[in-house]
Amino acid sequence: MTPVHRPFAVFVLAGGVFFGSVGPVEAQMLDDRNPDRSNETATGDDPTTEPPEFTLEGSHSIHTLTGAKTGRSMTYALYLPKGYAESDLQYPVIYFLHGAGIARRDELPADYGRWQMAFYDRAIARGLIPPVIVAMPVTRGVSLWADAKDGSTLASTQFIEEFIPHVDQTYRTIPEQKGRIIEGFSMGGNGAILFGAKHPELFSGVISIDAAIHVWDTLGDYGRADIAAETFGNDENYFQTYSPDHQVAENAASIREHGTEFILLVGELKSYNERFRAVMEAENIPLRYTDTTFKHEMGKLRMYDRDAIFSLVNKYFR
Fold first, then answer.
1. Quick check: 51 pLDDT over 90?
2. Of 14, 9, 7, nearest to 313 (Cα)?
3. Least C-beta-crowded within 10 Å: which of 152, 161, 237, 303?
4. How far is C-alpha 53 from the chain's CA centre?
5. Please, is 254 exposed, middle or buried when counting C-beta atoms within 10 Å of its C-beta (0-12, 13-18, 19+)?
6. What is the mean pLDDT of residues 142-160?
7. What's the pLDDT score for residue 28?
8. What pLDDT was estimated at residue 46?
9. Comparing C-alpha atoms, which of 172, 179, 218, 209 is closest to residue 191?
């Protein structure tokens, strides 16, 4: 499949510099190159099977925390790299936010997160990135990772004020901006951009994979009146407090000051992402924007631009 546009870029890795769209990561991971190995679909960030290639050298586990502020539970999947238990080292964390597929499920698959974690597990095993923790919180309802106006869901408060502190207190993390990257797919891509823009002091980088970056009008245009009503109480002003476009415009100076970096990988949801790209450029906030002809396919998009992802990880975590 041929990309529509892949911008030329320079990335610095530990040990050298590489240019453009092909680099050392591509050379060392050719056995993974066929994008059809991904089982990602439009709503499939929750596969229920575990193909052999998703065997991990690190560990996968499912946990639940009860937040001190909200009193509500939050389930999460956790990846700890090989050697974590035997060491006393501190590790950086990649926070991964899921899309609407998981938010709609009544029951979480026992292997939830395993195949997303395999992407980083293989890179760690091959020495392409340093060992990292991957933490994947779960929220219910198609909230766009916002707090519902009526308090029925509190995805934002739970994630920022409860989950991140819980991870820092429970595991040996690097509890500062340089030790955190946030990543998300679809609805989770919207959440990753939202949190990166609203709290740039918390995250060194944002990886957004075909994000559903809504503005108020698109909630109606794309038949998402349910989100406008259930999460935002049909209140446009309330919606703006969780709009990535609005948060970028409001916090542009802080984003630039903290140097939070943004990667947008774009498949089917081009209109959302092209509009948001223009917002970022208007505020003079640099980003890597990779447009492709892929569908809404997280696995393919991630593998296609993995050089950029691993370069970001190495820049802050190496």
1. no
2. 14
3. 237
4. 22
5. middle
6. 95
7. 34
8. 35
9. 209
State phi, psi for 127 to the nearest 5 degrees. Answer: 75, 20
Q: How far apart are the C-alpha atoms of 145 and 191, rounded to whole Å?
A: 5
Q: What is the mean pLDDT of residues 51-62?
A: 82
Distance from C-alpha of 14 to C-alpha of 143, rounded to nearest angstrom = 38
Model confidence at 56, pLDDT cuts 50, 70, 90, reads: very high
* CA–CA dist 295, 313 (Å, integer): 25
The rounded distance, in Å, linking the Cα atoms of 135 and 154 is 18
pLDDT for 170-189, tens place per residue?
Answer: 999 999 999 999 999 999 99
Distances (CA, A) of 95 to 44, 128, 133, 157, 281: 19, 19, 8, 15, 25
Paired tokens of 315: 């820049």
